[in-house]
Design a protein that fits this description.
173 residues; alpha+beta; 9-stranded mixed beta sheet; 5 helices; binds coenzyme A
């Protein structure tokens, strides 16, 4: 069986990443979000992970540095998303590898937490907990139970805070 490689994005990957999101989500919205982020100051290729199988990109996970505001202070955390795996290769652990790789990357880059908006049941498998358990909210007009968080550094979210996603994410909703 071919093995899965997870690595950071290079410029030549852009089209393949778009194709992964379009096929996995069944529409253009998430690929458009990635394009809008690429055109903004929020995009950092070093925080963009691709999964390769047999030389083909079959998965993508994007992390974006976002502020988490508290009364009188601010820290930066990583927002996970979009993330997807092509349907033909799902259920073989590629999504799990991307998430574990993104936790390692977040730690290497010195971030204390990851937040994610989407499918809480999926992210709970990887230790993410409801954001409301940590008094964390965000500026996306989505149900609060869809926001989950993972502390890379224990206690990093103590006291909670409000995550400010950049504009392209808001446009998705
Ligand atoms: C969600 C997704 C990234 C998972 O990728 P994957 O490579 O299949 O993930 P893994 O193989 O590591 O894990 C698969 C497991 O996750 C579970 N899972 C998948 N989507 C889930 C969801 N929305 N909620 C709960 N569990 C989910 C599956 O039941 C599967 O379990 P099983 O293999 O025991 O049946 C992929 O299905 C996908 O791209 N979906 C469409 C886009 C999407 O929803 N992205 C996440 C947005 S928040």
């Amino acid at each position: 069986m071919q093995s899965i490689t997870v690595r950071t994005e290079i410029p030549e990957d852009e089209r393949a990443i778009d194709v992964v999101h379009i096929s996995a989500f069944g529409g253009e919205a998430e690929a458009q979000l990635v394009s809008a982020l690429r055109a903004s100051s929020s995009y950092n290729r070093e925080l963009s992970l691709v999964a390769e199988l047999g030389g083909r990109i079959v998965g993508h996970l994007l992390l974006t540095r976002v502020p988490l505001r508290r009364s009188g202070s601010e820290i930066h955390v990583l927002a996970l998303g979009p993330m997807s795996v092509v349907p033909s290769q799902s259920h073989r652990g590629i999504g799990s590898e991307l998430i574990e790789a993104c936790k390692r990357l977040a730690r290497e880059k010195g971030y204390g937490s990851i937040v994610v908006m989407g499918h809480p049941e999926y992210y709970k498998r990887f230790g993410f907990v409801p954001a409301k358990d940590r008094q964390v909210t965000c500026n996306l007009p989505a149900p609060e139970e869809a926001l989950t968080v993972f502390e890379i550094e224990s206690g990093n979210l103590a006291g909670g805070g409000h995550v400010e996603y950049p504009e392209p994410f808001i446009a998705l909703y």
